[in-house]
Amino acid sequence: MKKLIVVYIFLLGLFALYLFYYKSTSLNETALEKAQEGIRGNMNEKYVMVTFQAGHDYWKRALKGFEDAAGALNVSIEYRGAAQYDVHEQITVLEQVIAKKPDGIAISAIDPDKLTTTINKAIDAGIPVVLFDSGAPSSKAQTFIGTDNYNAGVMGAQEMASLLDNKGQVGIVTLPNQLNHQERVKGFLETMEKDYPGIKVVEVKDGKGSEPISRMAAKELLSKYPHLNGIFATEAIGGIGVGSAVSAVKGKNKVKIVSFDTDKPTLDLIKDGTISATLAQGTWKMGYWSMQFLFHLNHKLTADSKLGNISAPPLPPNVDTGVSVITKKNVGDFYGQ
Amino acid sequence: MKKLIVVYIFLLGLFALYLFYYKSTSLNETALEKAQEGIRGNMNEKYVMVTFQAGHDYWKRALKGFEDAAGALNVSIEYRGAAQYDVHEQITVLEQVIAKKPDGIAISAIDPDKLTTTINKAIDAGIPVVLFDSGAPSSKAQTFIGTDNYNAGVMGAQEMASLLDNKGQVGIVTLPNQLNHQERVKGFLETMEKDYPGIKVVEVKDGKGSEPISRMAAKELLSKYPHLNGIFATEAIGGIGVGSAVSAVKGKNKVKIVSFDTDKPTLDLIKDGTISATLAQGTWKMGYWSMQFLFHLNHKLTADSKLGNISAPPLPPNVDTGVSVITKKNVGDFYGQ
């Protein structure tokens, strides 16, 4: 009888062990199988974002996107940048970053031509590189992630047309010598001409990226064209100058202003009605997809590696991160971004 | 004595159970911790790719990219398509797909206007949608992933200029009524005008996407312009027609042909030297990033969810997947893709 109990307990123990073993094995296998799947790196991987004017608010959302992607992918990041608007300083910073052999570098190039040699040095050293916000088309870097400025100009024209009920006179205050601003103006002008025959663009003026000069330019437009209905400013500082000219010379809400970017003074002028709309760039998206693309290059997750020795660029060469229109209605969403 | 053995076995069993329990718990915790990191879904998620002319080779690489991304992300996919080049059939297929409430749909739209209502129906039902290869700009879908045809024309011009040592006469055979082909021609013409003053584009002809008509168009170019040095064909069937005209009327290697896409007959003509270069579209990238973007929409991994109620498009609105140049040197990479 007691022997039977011993055997019974022994068999029961074996069965329990078997159950636990079975359960733990199958659970572990599933869990490990899962852990091996998915797209993830490890915390020893380091990706670096390099900008210029590193303290500027503009980069905050780009860095947030970079961080968010790194968090999702389980990798580490570092932010480096020239403190000033100085190409030599950015070259020095980039040289220092290259020396540390990170797993990828996302760069916004202050000067595409002068940075090309250093960018190519990174690529020749086998470090994945993407350009964001401000590209370097003649470098060996194959991907640019940023605003398509022509499309941004198209959006600006559509917003202006909607503010003016598709009729009236419009002026532009811009930086005529800078490529991104030329493209914004081109998109604006071609859209007005093609889609809004009731709107006439009367003059394009140089605001030199300066608040007082842009204010003066706007004043001249307002006195030269007494029936002026709107002004498009292709950058934020100019938009603030235009805003102060319009507020001073005429009553608010008469001349509609469409501006660019989302610094605090611009948002304040949206809130008080001086500026009717501003175009926000997709800076979070620039940072997020820069990180994703660098990860894909570093882990060889692209067509290159999937399809053998194929002579195709591994990533999309151009990603337009778009602009969104900010007005009084949604300006609250953009404070503190 | 026997009692002692019973107690002994019982205690031994408890200890073994404890060990196994401990091991399985700690392993599972680590594994689950890992499984929570990284970017991954689960196999119950289903994403659908919808095309037209579903059996066509052209979609194979796009589907491979879609599959590769789904594999990396641990989710399921399905491929559906209209068998014919028929907008009503594609609408029916899309309706059937919507009824199954998948986690995302990537569509190449045979006819942007006629499909817009059905695409919007999917979005209104809360299903993430991206357009690839052929977009639907007036629909509510916010992202298009495909070839920037203007840039493709620029690449075609650069390749032609390099083949002709920057001088000579060039003709074009195209589909003048289709937007994507208009853009290819525009990019080609503007690049020649701006960057290659030694090259003159003598005439643009309609090949109607037909091999015999394109052959006839090329014959006319060859007889009208006896000093013709090159022909740019903006689509593959036309390129084959142009190839046969050039082979028949003149000796090979005299008139250089730059064509489009990578179907087998085109690759064969590259191999035998009739066509000097063809432009391969980034179809793998279209499929891969369509899947990634749908996953990001479905899992709310975009700025929208990371930054509160922000009034910005969640994904980049335009992704240019680029083209790569195929010549005799690298044509081997593209067979069997």
UniProtKB/TrEMBL annotation, chains A, B:
Residues 49-296 form the Periplasmic binding protein domain. It is found in: Cell envelope. Keywords: Membrane, Signal, Transmembrane, Transmembrane helix. The chain crosses the membrane at residues 5-22. Its main location: other. GO terms for molecular function: carbohydrate binding. SUPFAM superfamilies: Periplasmic binding protein-like I. GO terms for cellular component: cell envelope. It holds the Pfam family Peripla_BP_4. The keyword Plastid does not apply. CDD domains: PBP1_ABC_sugar_binding-like. Belongs to the bacterial solute-binding protein 2 family. This is LacI family transcriptional regulator. It comes from Neobacillus cucumis.
